[in-house]
Amino acid sequence: MTNTHAIVIDKVKESKIAKTDFDNLTFGKTFTDHMLECTWRDGEWQSVEIKPYGPIEVEPSCKVFHYGQAIFEGMKAFKDATGDVFLFRPEDNWQRFNASAKRLAMPEVPEEIFMEGLKKLVALDKDWVRYGEGLSLYLRPFMISSENGVAAAPSTEYKFMIIMSPAFAYYKGDVRVIIASEFSRAADGGVGYAKAAGNYAASFYPNNLAIQEGYQQVIWTDAASHEYLEEAGTMNIFVRIGDSLFTAPHNDRILNGVTRRSVIQMAKDHGIHVEERRISVNEIREAAKDGSLKEIFGSGTAAVIVPIKGFKHKDFKYELPQLDDSYASRLKEALKDIQYNRAEDKHGWRVKI
Amino acid sequence: MTNTHAIVIDKVKESKIAKTDFDNLTFGKTFTDHMLECTWRDGEWQSVEIKPYGPIEVEPSCKVFHYGQAIFEGMKAFKDATGDVFLFRPEDNWQRFNASAKRLAMPEVPEEIFMEGLKKLVALDKDWVRYGEGLSLYLRPFMISSENGVAAAPSTEYKFMIIMSPAFAYYKGDVRVIIASEFSRAADGGVGYAKAAGNYAASFYPNNLAIQEGYQQVIWTDAASHEYLEEAGTMNIFVRIGDSLFTAPHNDRILNGVTRRSVIQMAKDHGIHVEERRISVNEIREAAKDGSLKEIFGSGTAAVIVPIKGFKHKDFKYELPQLDDSYASRLKEALKDIQYNRAEDKHGWRVKI
């Protein structure tokens, strides 16, 4: 094929949208009319196809089932009051997608396939992006190895796909966390910084143990000492001690979240002292005891900004104070104002479809 | 369904075996006539189906593509001179499969499904097990999450499958390895001990770097210090210093290989002093310098026993001596004698189909 990567579009005969009950959605269960698919074979990306969302046929020997080369991104499209649709920092997701691809020995996806494909797909299904508080279209670009065969080696064939699911603001209930002291999410020199499917599978069992104890999530700590906070698997973590905000520096164990980077920038814009530095569990426990621990919150594309109500570390339990003007709520409002085109976009984060 | 898990068999109309060129097989590319499939849904295993090997249909939102819950086992069936077919320590694989399942928050597979299903499947396709030096049928039981949906949580549905591929003895060429000093395979408190698909995906990029330098594999070291040997991803590692044999103790980072355990037992049977203990890279480099480092070899189901010809660690390179009567060749012959029913099976490792 040529390098222009022409996009072939095959539209659905009849949209599912009229039959979709937008008031009763389960997160990630309903998909829009179309999806994007592009195959990497013989060392290059083949034609880009946008076609009706539907099943794919794979052999049981398909390498992704056996050796787990699978990466993804989570993004959202937002609609403003006038009906215009925007992506939020999509270049950041594309760059991280390719960083994940490299670490998992998968081919990088060129910008014209990822970005032009995404824009065309969102434009085609733009009626699925609803306007309203907390509403968005969740975008899921992902790549899987698709060669058939069980030899333990990188695949010679891959599929890049984008699927999209209407999302809503929902009250998740209070979130309390266990700070990990036994299990780990990532190793130094490993793949923790990549959005690799296997990282999530590895977190489910310890997370289930936390749920059984009445907690909703795990904040991971470093595997070597379990003394320093890392992230929460689907969220980066911010800690407010006194009036300062801290988050762990990103490294090869910690995902460099797009929402994380936005929170850091917005905190600076609001005159909040914010630092990327190691945060020890001991420091948090001491700050809890002397009353200087004001807030802990998570940040992520799906979760947006989620205040943590309480935590447990070994035998130490703590309930965070309820603040009238928390950094979490202030920054969440500021983020939504940018995403929904209600505020000036001084960092150039919005991309209009 | 009832607890008896009746196995439903749908045979192929015409076998592919006559069209299969057994003299020109690529490892893991050719599959037998039948496969086994069993779905876990609504909290229980549904009916067990043995049916023609062929593609399955899955939605692009299938959770295995996004969150990587996928585990497997590697096993082999052997044929003896009289045409009888044997499995090798299959109970060990079943138990490890369920240990992997537990760590990945997946349902355990009952013995009657795994073992009876496997035996029926091998019996049905027993003509695909060829008799001859190094020939075997490679068995691949695996499980994937199969719920549709992109919410980051354990799947509510799983597929357990077994596929089988005729395998042969092949000369892999000399194997030289890089001992890792930067990248890691597994974290303390992580999933390194499980046969999780994501562990393999994580190893491909560093392994590709080794290949680019002219080496074939990586021997992983501990992520915390990179000072102690772990395993080689598809093989456990044995080191012979003087007349003693050492292998790293299994822990939550290192797979407890069935071939590894067999090698340890056979070494004891042969009066070889064998120890499971930590082996530092420094110890190996010192032993190389003073000449006491006699052998390094890998052990695994697919690889059997593979002598390592040389290694590199940082700027230190070493070529192992060529021994006339190496432990590797002695133990490999002993292992094959048991597997092919040419020697007494005093530990009860063979299971006749």
From TrEMBL, chains A, B:
Pathway the protein contributes to: Amino-acid biosynthesis; L-isoleucine biosynthesis; L-isoleucine from 2-oxobutanoate: step 4/4; Amino-acid biosynthesis; L-leucine biosynthesis; L-leucine from 3-methyl-2-oxobutanoate: step 4/4; Amino-acid biosynthesis; L-valine biosynthesis; L-valine from pyruvate: step 4/4
GO molecular function: L-isoleucine-2-oxoglutarate transaminase activity; L-leucine-2-oxoglutarate transaminase activity; L-valine-2-oxoglutarate transaminase activity; lyase activity
Transmembrane segments: none
Entry annotated with the keyword Lyase: yes
SUPFAM superfamilies: D-aminoacid aminotransferase-like PLP-dependent enzymes
Any one biological process term the GO annotation gives: isoleucine biosynthetic process
Pfam families tied to this protein: Aminotran_4
Residues recorded with modification N6-(pyridoxal phosphate)lysine: 195
Enzyme class, first EC level, given as a word: transferase
Alphabetical list of InterPro entries matching this protein: Aminotrans_IV, Aminotrans_IV_CS, Aminotransferase-like, B_amino_transII, BCAT-like_C, BCAT-like_N, BCAT_family
Keywords assigned by UniProt, alphabetized: Amino-acid biosynthesis, Aminotransferase, Branched-chain amino acid biosynthesis, Lyase, Pyridoxal phosphate, Transferase
Catalysed reaction equations from the record: L-valine + 2-oxoglutarate = 3-methyl-2-oxobutanoate + L-glutamate; L-leucine + 2-oxoglutarate = 4-methyl-2-oxopentanoate + L-glutamate; L-isoleucine + 2-oxoglutarate = (S)-3-methyl-2-oxopentanoate + L-glutamate
CDD domains: BCAT_beta_family
EC number: 2.6.1.42
Cofactors that this protein relies on: pyridoxal 5'-phosphate
UniProt record similarity statement: Belongs to the class-IV pyridoxal-phosphate-dependent aminotransferase family.
Record's function text: Acts on leucine, isoleucine and valine.
Protein name: Branched-chain-amino-acid aminotransferase
Organism: Nonlabens dokdonensis (strain DSM 17205 / KCTC 12402 / DSW-6) (Donghaeana dokdonensis)
